[in-house]
Amino acid sequence: MSNESQLIWKHEAGSGTPLSLRNVHIIYGARKGDVQAVRGVDLDLRAGESIALIGESGSGKTTLGLGIVRLLVKSADISQGEIIYRRNGTEVNVLDLDKKELREFRWKECSMVFQSALNAFNPVLRVWDQMRDTAQSHGWKDKKAIRQRSLDLLGFVQLDAERVIDAYPHELSGGMRQRVLIALSLLLDPQVLILDEPTTALDILTQRTIIDLLRKLKEEQHFTMIFISHDLAIAAELADRIATMYAGRIVELGSADDIFYRPRHPYTLGLIRAVPKVVGGFQELFSIPGSPPDLIDLPSGCKFHPRCPYATDKCKTEEPDLVTVGREHEAACWHWREVEEELQTNPLHSV
Amino acid sequence: MATTITAPPVKNIHEKQRESGFYRVTHSYFFQKIWKALFTAWVVVTLTFFLIRLLPSNPVELFIQDLMVQYGMPYHEAQDQAAALFSIDLNQPLWGQYLDYMWGLLHGDMGTSILSPGTPVTSIIMRFLPWTIFSVGIALMISFTLGIILGLFMAYRREGLLDHILTVMASILSSIPNYILGILLIIFLGVRWGLISVASMRGTLSPGVEPGFTLEFFKDALYHAALPILTYVLTTIGSWMLTMKSSTIGVLEEDYVTVAKAKGLKEGRITSSYVGRNASLPMFTLLTIAIGFVVGGSVLIETIFQYQGIGYILLQSVNKRDYTVMQGVFLVITLAVIIANFFADILYSWLDPRIKLGKQE
Q: Is residue A9 part of a domain?
């Protein structure tokens, strides 16, 4: 891969927070009522860090990811909050951008790798055409330069660049398409990269190559990334910080180590206990009882209380806010100390 | 790469066969296509040959009756005159006539008209077919293009007021038979409201206008073809619109359209290359099929508007049992469908890279 060395990254892996979410609410209008998919999310994304959003299906993680680039379906509405994007000292609220500004913001500042790379490409255009139109839409004129950068990026994602660039999407395997999509997402050297379940549709070996690639991106290029995943193993491997989402809220936020070894929210604990271990023989798998809440008619108080083993009367009436439970570690639970005690008697990862 | 196991090259008889030039030619995509097309043509030609001879009466009988009715001739006299005029021997056994006909066809000879002795069928077809291709072709282009644009528009504005209005209009238009619409046009535009002079619009050209590359000729040709074209457009545009609308709605939900938006592409580029191009793929197959039916679909319209095209001549020849002309016209219709299908395959593989010619087993 001699091409790699020629790749130039413009983004600065410096300090600062390129993206801040402030009290973001997202509502889907449905016939039965409003679906409250995201309810007041606050999150600061620091430059160069990768943050994973984990949670069950329907917890609002993908909605939040799409909301950041304002790609939600028409029935959805970001009803409250601010999405602040910063670059070179200037800051804008993404929600205030007009059509043209939004178009320019997308992909150039914040690109997105989608869950279903299989269908992410226009079937009638070659990979090259889809890279070219992306670059040209953002003002690149020099075709030669676009082609060279495309080839470099395809080489970076370990593909046979010369062959892949002139291929049609159907001529590529699922793993190859996912890599092409990653290369495409890097084309304009965005400051923020959102990855929505980047490995879900792939077999386990292909997952491995994609994870290795993403790790290379994170460790060597210091990209600022948001991972959306329900796969805890991938989150553990790729994320610096992890945010657990439940019923449209972040219920726990902390470093990957804290979340995996010292969770303080019963829901996070439940998620970790629900992952089978390969070693250690057969153990009874833990499952969280009940199912995710109805987002139209949410339970009162803490939204997790109907499924929570620690629930008390207080949980039924009052919804807890995030409180500091450790260094750079927050959880939204009235009973986080009980979770802590439980973990001391019954540790998570007995090595 | 781990260890790779290479199997020793084993060649069986089958593979050897595959390498020979003859096998490759006979199993090539185009050879198979042409073979199938020829077979279809033969079946249709044979069927029409026998079917039209099953029609009650025959050209000589009808001619004799005509003479008797028109000129009050006695039967014998009329029969003698008919025998003198027609060279056709209808007493020859049917299979003999069939073999003669097929032998002629193989030499590119469709025979001569029975009722206008000495006029080759080929020249009759060459005289009338261009008018049909002209009128129906233009109509098809207009309704296809407009239908695709309107369908795309409806899908983008779906559930809006304009979408509802256009959908209702399209449904109504596509369910009116073209001959009824043609009659309605004559009655309302021509007779009731007197907006147009139907009488002067009959025919393919005004008297005195000579075919040629002159503006006058084209204007006159369009003037005469206007009503048939209007009828074809109005009766076919509805189905183009509705098909395009549903196809577009499907494509709009595809992931690659969302990705295109996420990539920050310009709206026009997304609509043309991402949505429009993919949504119109199935339309092109339908278009080639529609082209195939151009010739056959013109019979009633050309009769209603007295437009002398191939459909008009078909009806005339059916009425007079002019076997050879009927056979010729049916052959043209068959060939139109076969050729259109052939082109549909080629066009589709060109528009949609996922479909490659000659790769199917």
A: no
